[in-house]
């Protein structure tokens, strides 16, 4: 049976985990420039909103000045928060090193229906990819995540509950989203992930700090496929093949509310065509960095033992 779209993740409060290094130590390692960038972003936010004070007393010239400052400040903030390759709030990598390679990355899974179909296809084509899994979903379907890892793919952190307003999370919630996502992968696969991608690629002024604390590298993308919107596999295929060059990291999704049929239909042809162009498929990060030098999996810890010890919410959808 096809998975039905849910009504969103649980809004129940999640616990704060102990930080691995302590905030003070992490701030020391963060560096003055990194902290200054976050501080400048916060000042920009304050200055943009302070422009509203120009409206009192109201005159046309003061109104126009306030509109100009507010619009310009908001545009800059949106660029810093939304642009996938912007380095201001968090250093990130959007390409792989070798010019004759590309990396396929799949976000938002696992899906109980489409991720196994994708894994079958990848095994048939002998292609290894990177899965950015949502912690809550990974806890629901740990056997799928384990299978992906066992078959040579890379498992990376896509936060705990995929909050659509990720850039507005409180510091406590932001850190919990990162840590709980990492812990979910550790319980299932036996290692802490080394790669992170935020929901919708959204940034946060404190993201750089917390990723450093968690030992995570931010992996962005250079090709946005719009597989979440395109409903025709030929159009999706054409869009990707027209843009891909060596070194690209390609963003796809193995879990969509309406199913990933379009992507699954397009993918075999895309793989064959890119191979025909001499491109090889690589992971977006290293499995060795993830603490594994072989393809052998580690014993899976039952999720319920972690839930009991940290009082995690138990009903993801
Ligand atoms: Zn996502």
Q: What is the first-to-last residue Cα distance?
A: 17 Å
Sheet with most strands: 6 strands, parallel
Number of domains: 2
What is the architecture of the largest domain at the second tier of CATH? Alpha-Beta Barrel
In angstroms, what is the radius of gyration? Answer: 21 Å
- Overall mean confidence score, pLDDT: 84
| Range of strand content | 5-15%
C-alpha geometry: globular
Q: Could you give the order of the helices and strands? A: HHHEEHEHHEHEHEEHEHEH
H/I helix tally: 11
> What are the bound molecules?
zinc ion
Binned, the helix content reads 40-55%
CATH topology of the largest domain: TIM Barrel
What is the CATH domain class of the largest domain? Alpha Beta
**Structural class estimated from helices and strands:** alpha/beta
CATH homology superfamily of the largest domain = Glycoside hydrolase/deacetylase
Uncertain parts: 1-24, 292-317
Quick summary:
This protein is of the alpha/beta class.
Structure, described:
With 317 residues, the protein is α/β, with parallel strands linked by helices. The protein folds into two domains: 13-82, no CATH class; 93-305, TIM Barrel (Alpha-Beta Barrel), CATH 3.20.20. 44% of the residues lie in helices and 10% in strands. It is built from eleven helices and nine strands. It has helices at residues 23-30, 32-50, 60-82, 114-125, 135-140, 142-150, 171-189, 207-214, 233-243, 261-276, 303-310, and strands spanning 92-93, 101-107, 130-133, 154-157, 195-196, 217-219, 223-224, 249-253, 280-281. The strands form two sheets. Strands 2, 3, 4, 7, 8 and 9 form a six-stranded parallel β-sheet that branches. The protein has a three-stranded parallel β-sheet with strand order 1-6-5, with no helix packed on it. Bound molecules: zinc ion (ZN). Zinc ion binds at residues 107-108, 158, 162, 199.
